[in-house]
Each structure stands twice: as structure tokens, then as C-alpha cells.
Amino acid sequence: MNFVDLLMLGFSEAITPANLAFCLLGALLGTLIGVLPGIGPTATIAVLLPITFFLPPLAGIIMLAGIYYGAQYGGSTTAVLVNLPGEASAVVTTLDGYQMARQGRAGAALAVAALGSFFAGTVATFAIAVAGPMLSGFALSFGPAEYVALMVFGLLAATILASGPVLKAIGMILIGLLLGMVGTDQATGAERLTFGAVELFDGVDFIVIAIGIFGFAEIITNLERSGSEGVQLAPLSRLWPTRDDFRRSWAAVLRGTGLGTLLGLLPGGGATLASFSAYSLEKKVSKHPEKFGTGVVEGVAAPEAANNAAAQSSFIPLLTLGIPSNNMMAMMLSAFMIHGITPGPTVLTNQPEIFWGLVASMWIGNLLLVVINLPMIGLWVKLLTVPYRLLYPAILLFCCIGVYSMNNRVFDVILAAGFGLLGYAFRKARCEPGPLLLGFVLGPLLESNLRRTLLITQGDPSIFVERPISLVMLLATVVLLALMILPSFRRTREEAFQEEEA
Amino acid sequence: MAAPNGTRGDAPDLLTAGMFIGLGALGLYMARGLDGGTLAQMGPGFLPRTVCILLILIGLAVGLPALTRPAQAIEAIRIRPLAVITISIVGFAFAATYLGFVLASLWLVIVGSLADPGGKWSHILLLAAGLTLFGALVFVYGLGVQVPLWPV
Amino acid sequence: MTFAKTTAIAAILTATGAGAALADWPTDRPIEMIVAFAPGGGTDIMLRTLAPFLEAELETQFPVLNRPGASGEIAYTALSQARPDGYTVSSLNTPGFLTMQIDRKLRYDPASICPIARIVEDPGTFIVQAGSEFQSLADLVAYARENPGAVSVGTTGMGTDEHLAMLQLEQAAGVDLTAVPFGGANEAKTALLGGHVSMIGLNVGEYSTSDDNAFRALAQFSQERSVLAPDLPTATEQGFEVLMSSERGLAARCDVPEEIRAKLAAAVDAALANPEFQEKAKQQALPLAYRSGADWQAEMPARLARFTEIFKLIEGGQ
To answer: Is the pTM of this model over 0.95?
Structure first.
């Protein structure tokens, strides 16, 4: 069978009424849990797994996949509307998305995010269909040394993200790295920076930090500035993006899609790296980098496209090699196995209807999400007109339930309250929290891969320049560093900063 | 925002420096017992210490120039929202475990609402009841969050 | 609330309520099943699959409560603080339950937790790429003798099953291998496929769910060959004494009345005998191996001693 036949087979499987219904159900459920802060798709899928026993294999898997990418869509809604990233990949969406919302352009931000995501999802789905097996080779060529180079590059690129002084951004990344080290050291089993608390042996959870520093601190500062009366957003100017918005976003979406599709293949921090490197890239190529962080549409379009593309392409290693690239994919693996299917090359040849049916359903699911979400934008935006006095207790409640539900324990909620205080202090000190979260996510990957590399080579660091991918990335890091240190670059940064102050 | 009296010191940057140096020092203190190891067999203390030292250096680099810059004040701090929101969250945590979701949620919404003066009691109570019902239906029944509804 | 206080309250409640509870057990209220791992992990899925069968056996409900963290310590601590009325059970995993007694100061007393029944025994195994030159443990050992430290072994961290198995092999064969810790079995598999490490440790259950064309197993570390891999020789058969299995089962507090624990064990035994459950277990590649709580517990002291001995190797500079 050739490619077109296989894709047709996939679509014929995916558009049976039952499969379509499960796809829609999954996408809706995913959107719901994505919008609710702190409730992640992993836990939801775990709870739903036993239910899928009673479904035919393909229907069950389609529904679970729908929850996953639906949650990606929903997550950006919360990031834009209330400045609360539900997961690491949505951190950068808050930077410009929330500023757009404050200027009364929440509708435009959400629409661009949805359309950009749909485009990216379409491209990535076809990338899976056409080049899945080939792309999986790319993921395998990333050994520990390549990861180290990628993370070093990524962490440096994270400083571009912040619009404040570089030094503060680097400091925040370092704090993030430090937080990432809390817990049991993977390599030696030593307990680090835990204050002896058994609850910290596995480290701090991303959700705890994000909800504390973004969610709780935001509520406290908002109330402090002027009480609930004062939290006023600019009146809604226009629900849909302008022609100018589209003109400025399309190239950003393209670049974001490309980056996201490639980085999504990598296990671990793929989707996070994708969204923020897409943002950093836009800021670098933009003619007016100083405007980033004040509500520019490219700053929403690129990372949203990137993280949705990455969400789709993270299926590639699972489907073609049987190796899940993150927790979510590990859950999908369990879902396959419950139905007696072992993902891998043999599924491609023996049960093509499963692989192609899922690929086709992903595209259909993305289409459904756009169709569901575009009309919902009007509703979401209305939410912003609810008086803050009524809105903030609701946000507070959803955040608390989200944090509590992760491990069902008091400790996490109190820790999140502590991070709320820390986030409050950061705001007083005018430090942006975005780079902290990225340092937190990428730090453990950097450390463990650095140690792995040096264990494998028995202490010889020359491997970093001997392997081509690692060499290229390290050279790119050096160039980036040079650009940042060069006086001319520094001047433009400072000018930009002053412009903001003015 | 420069203060009129002509004193020096960029307070937000000094606060930043204080936090960076403080967290770095705390990290160094906590990592004191950890083994540094060698490059080939990196110990658990290697990177934490490196990061803490860098953090302290960055703190100094931010803080020292800030001492001589024209004075800038930190935004005024108001205790009410800070304290009330924190207390409401901590109370929720304990209540959810020992008193069940319904009481925890009512506590959180009612106490949390007090962070903002001037709310009407009738509104707050209505909101608390509504959100609790919504939370119980969506989170506990719908999404299977593992928390008891009533005191155990 | 302090531990002592909780225990005191629990004791009072037991004294007053035990008689009544025993008579009605287990139909008057649900039995909470604490799972020591996050939703979606192997142990979680196994127990969620088993729960409906236990519910049918005992005519009650088994709601699952996930208390992940610290490789089970958080769940065991929660179990040891629950009322000893038979309405709280927990997952129990070895070697984690045993190894944490060696090197950690625990917040609960391991002697207060008694196994009810073992459900699964999943032997450890070493796997290499399908194209690797190593066909057996002997090949590997011969190569490692020539090139000390050159064989890198992917594990899931210090003191984990795979690491302990590797240390045993080093000791049994007198070779020097390099342990490379990964974040989990899947990360390690990826690194092996990409050729970044020579070999990785896995459990047979995890191995049998991978595509056979990509990997080859060298040995399994159980006393007898697992039902999942009847053709794979054990390390002992190949002349190296390496024994390492991860076992999963259920546990309750030791002061839960004997009668209730026996009923629970019988229910687990019956559920495991149910062909419908066996079918589901097969799909999930669960190597079922029922053993009664008493038998299982009897094996533990010897194993603990052996692990303690291996742990000394780590401290001895390995």
C-alpha cells in the first residue's frame, strides 16, 4: 500500500461515527482540564484508563490522544486570560498573551493561538505520516553529550526571554536551577536541599512553583495595587485579529511549527524547549525586539504553534519505536498495552489501521478543536468582564484543588503558598519569573546528562566537540554569548529597557 | 519614581541582590554536607555549589551598582491581601484533608474574599456556595480528584 | 498532628470500634487502596485492574488513592498511620521497601507493615541492542575483563534494582562496569537504541513489551525462569549468581486482625485465579506470581541481609 492508500485507510477508520464521537469527547475533556489550572492531562488519563478497557482499542486511544492535545489548547487559554501557565510549555504564552489581554485584545490573542496551533498541528501530523520513522532516527542521535549542548544553548537563550536586565534574568535562571536540584539526587541517591522533608525527596513539582509564583502572587499583587475595583482591563477593542495581526504572525507560526516539530521528538523537555526557543527566535529576528513582552502578536503565535507541533510530534518516538518521550506518552503506552498492542515498527506493518487511524484522528481532532474553540473565544473573553471580586476566589479555588490533587497532600498546597510569597517578593524586586521556570525545567536535564556524558567517557570532555550535533550547538551558544556581550547589542538592550520605563 | 529627597539606592535592585545572595547562601549552607566529587564521578554537591556561588556573584553584580544609583522606592506593601490570601490557602490545605472538600472550599472562598475590603456578605456567601457546588461536581465527581467531600 | 497523637487516637478508636468493625467487615464501607506511585505507573495500573475483581470477591468497593513519593515511603507512612481496622491497604513493592530500610531514617516502623499477598514477581534482566556482539553474559564478562570500565550500563539510579543487579554481576564475575543513571526505563531504552550506552537493566515485564527486533536480553535474574520469558536463561544457569526481582503486592498494618488479613489474601488469590483477570494481566505483561503474605514475609529478612551486603559495596567506593 502506498502512502495515500494508507492515509485513506486511516481516515476511513477515524471518521466512523463512534471514533469521531470519542475524538470529540477527548478533545472537549482535554480543553476542560487544560483550562483548569493545575489539573494535568496525565492524571486525568490515568483515571480514565480503566474505562477504555470497554472500548475498542482504536476508539480508546483516539479519546486519550484527544485529551492530550485538547489540554494543550486549553492551557493557553488560562495563560492568556489570567496569566497562569498550566504547564511549562505555556510559560512563554503568558509573556505577551496576558499583556494583549490587558490591552483588550484577548480575543485576538486566543484566535491567533488557536489558528496557529491548528496550522502547526496539521503540519506536524503530516510530518508523522510522511516521515515518522525517519524523524525517529533524529531523536536517537541525541545522546547525553548532545543534550548537554542543547541545554546550555537553551538556558542562555532563555535570558533573551526576559525584557528586564540580563543579570536579573541570569539570576532567576540560577534560582530555577537550584530549585530543580531539590530532592533525591538521581545518580547517587543523596538527599539534597530538602530541609529533611520526606515530601521533597522527589523534588518540587512544576505545578506547585507555577501556581505559587504566577497564580497566587498575581492575585495578591492585583488586590494590593488597588483592591478588586482597580483590576480593570482595557475595554475589548475587537474580538478577532486584525489583518495586521495575521500579516505579522504567519511567518512566526511557520518558524514555530518547524522548531516545534523537531524539538518535540526529543524526550524530556522537548515541548518546553520548543515553545521558548520559538519565542527567543522571534525576538531575535524581529525588527523591534524591544516590543516583546508588551503584547505583540508574534510572541503568542510562535510559541503556541511550536508547543502544539511538539505535542503532535512527541507521538513519533512512541509510535515508531515504542518509546514514550514524556510522562504523557508513557500513559499512552499503557493505554496501547491494555489493549494488547505493543507500539513499534511491527504495529506499522501488522496493524496499519491503528497507526494511520490515530494519525488521521489527530488531524480531525485539531480541526474539531478549532471549530469548538473559535466560538468559545467570545465566551472566554466575556469571562474577563466578570468583576475581579468574583473572579479571583474562583481562580484561587481552582489553583488550590489543582495543587492538592497532584499528590493528595497538604504539603504541596502549603509549599505553593510559600512560592506565592516568593513570587510576591520577586515582583517587588522587579524580577521576571519566566526564566526561573525554564531553569527549573531544564536544569535537571542539564545536570543528569552532563554527569552521564562524563561517566560514559570516563571524565573526558572532548566528546562535546567531537560529536557534530553537539559541536554545532556549542558554537551557536558561543555566537549568542558574543552577541550579548558585544557593546552594540548591550546598548540596544538598554535602550529597549529605557523605552519600556518611559 | 525617583525619591525627592536625593538619597541614593535603587531599592528593587537591592532587594533582588538581597534575595539572590540570601538564596545562594542558604543553598551553600544546605549543600555543605554533600560530596563534590570529581569531573568523571561528579558528586551530588558539585552543581548546587557552583550554582550558589554564581548566584551570589550575580547578586553582588546587581547590588553594588544599585547602591550608588538615584533612589528608587519599592512599591508600597499592603499586609491585608498578602496575609489573608496566604492564610486562606493554608487553611484550605488542612481542611481538605481533615474536614473534606465542602468545608475546605467554603473556607477558602469566604476567607479569601476578605482580602478585598468592601464585598457584600450576601455576594460572598452565594459565590462560596456556587463555587463549592461547581468544584464538587467538576473536580470530585467529574475528574475524580481524590478528596473526601465531607469530614471523615 | 504528631505521630504519637495519631497513634494514640488510633489506638482508642481501635479499642472501642474493633469488635463492631470486625463483624461487619468488609461490607459496611469502602476499603481504601493506597498506591505508592503516581497514576499510570505499572503498580497503579496493575491495582486499578485488580480492584474490580477484588470488589466482586469481597462485595465492597476499593477506591484507589495515589500517594506517590520517596519510592513508597510516603504511602507506607500513610498506611502505618491509618486505623488498623482493615479498611486501608497499600501497595507494597520490593526491593524498594527493603532497601529504604538500609540507608534512610524512616518515618514509619517497617515492622508495623505486614504483606497480605504478593501479586507479581518481575525478574530483572540486562538487555543489549539486537545487533550487539554480546550473545550471553559470558561474552559480556569476557569483554569487560579486557576493558575495565568500558561497558556502560544504563540504570534508573543509585540503589535501584538494575544498579544492585549490576553490582552483583561485578562481584560474581570480578569485572568493572560503569553505571549510568537515567530518569526511567524509557530514557534508558532510548539511549540504548541510539547506541549511547552498551547495555541497560530492565524488568522482564518492561522488556517483553518492547519490540523484539530492536533488543536482545542476556539473562534474567530470578531463581526460576519467569512465565513471561520461558526461553531466557537465568544468570544462575549461566554461572553467575545474580538475583534480583521486583515484586508487587498488597500490605496492611500488622495489627489488623489476623482474620481480616487472611480474608483479604484469599480474595487476592481468588481474583488472580479468575481467567478474566489473567487475560488482562497477560495484555499488560504482568508476570503473576501469587504468594501468601506469611510466605512472602518469611523471605524478606534474608533478602534484606543480602541487599545490605551489596549496599556496602557502594559505600566501599563502587
So the answer is: no
Q: Are C146 and C112 in contact (CB under 8 A)?
A: no
Q: Locate the domains of chain B by residue range.
A: 11-67, 79-143
Where is pLDDT greater, at C1 or A360? A360
Q: Is the preceding peptide bond at C26 cis, omega within 30 degrees of 0?
A: yes
A230 part of a folded domain? no
> Could you tell me which residue, C20 or A157, shows the higher pLDDT?
A157
Contacts of A33 in chain B (CB under 8 A): 143
Range of the domain at A7: 3-225+236-499
Which CATH architecture fits C3-121+246-309? Answer: 3-Layer(aba) Sandwich (3.40)
Name chain C's partners: 3 or more CB pairs within 8 A: A, B
Hey, what's the cell of A228? 478588586
Instruction: Enter the CATH code of domain C122-245.
Output: 3.40.190.10
Distance between CA atoms of A74 and A28, rounded to whole angstroms? 9
What is the DSSP secondary-structure string of A64-132? HHHHHHHHHHHHHHHHHHHS--SSGGGHHHHHHHHHHHHTT-HHHHHHHHHHHHHHHHHHHHHHHHHHH
Q: Which residue of C has its CA nearest to B148?
A: C65
Q: Which of A171, A398, A408 sits opposite B147 (nearest CB)?
A: A408
In angstroms, the separation between the Cα of residue B151 and the nearest Cα of chain A is: 15
B 112-151 → C contacts, CB under 8 A: 146
Interface test with C, best of A332, A334, A339 (most C CBs within 10 A): A334
- Report the pLDDT averaged over residues C100-107: 81
* Alpha helix ranges (H) inside chain C: 3-24, 42-58, 73-81, 96-103, 137-146, 161-173, 185-193, 204-208, 258-273, 275-283, 293-315
CB contact under 8 A, A192 and B94: no
Chain C residue at shortest CA distance from B40: C178
> Between chains, do C210 and A342 touch, taking CB under 8 Å as contact?
yes
Residues 6+ apart with CB under 8 A from A247: none
What is the tally of structural domains in chain A?
A: 1
Helical segments of A265-386, H only: 270-285, 298-313, 315-321, 327-338, 345-350, 352-383
Question: What is the structure's pLDDT at A235?
Answer: 65
Which helix (H) or strand (E) element contains residue A160? helix A144-161
pLDDT tens profile A74-92: 888 888 888 888 777 788 8
d(CA A209, CA A436) in angstroms, rounded, equals 10
Q: Do the domain assignments include residue A274?
A: yes
Which one of A46, A198, A458 has the shortest CB-CB distance to C107? A198
Report the gap between the CA of C259 and the closest CA in chain A (Å). 31
* Inter-chain CB proximity C45 and A49 less than 8 Å: yes
Alpha-helix residue ranges (DSSP H) falling in B31-77: 46-68
Residue C65 forms contact with B (CB below 8 Å): yes
Asked if omega into C95 is within 30° of 0 (cis), the reply is yes
Please tell me which of the candidates A219, A394, A410 has its beta carbon nearest to residue B85: A219
Closest C-alpha among A215, A395, A419 to residue B109: A395
Asked if A192 and B81 come within 8 Å (Cβ–Cβ), the reply is: no
Pair C61, C31: CB distance under 8 Å: yes
- pLDDT cut 70: percent of chain B above it: 95
Average pLDDT on A164-171 reads 85
Q: Which of A77-91, A322-336, C83-97, C109-123 has the lowest mean pLDDT?
A: A322-336
pLDDT of residue B96 exceeding 70, the answer is yes
In a domain, A321, yes or no: yes
- β-bridge mates for residue C118, sequence order: C249, C291
Dist CA A16 CA A408 (whole Å): 39
The ranges of chain C annotated as CATH 3.40.190.10 are: 122-245
- The confidence score (pLDDT) of residue B101 equals 93
Residue A172, in any domain of the structure: yes
Please tell me which of the candidates A186, A267, A331 has its beta carbon nearest to residue C190: A267
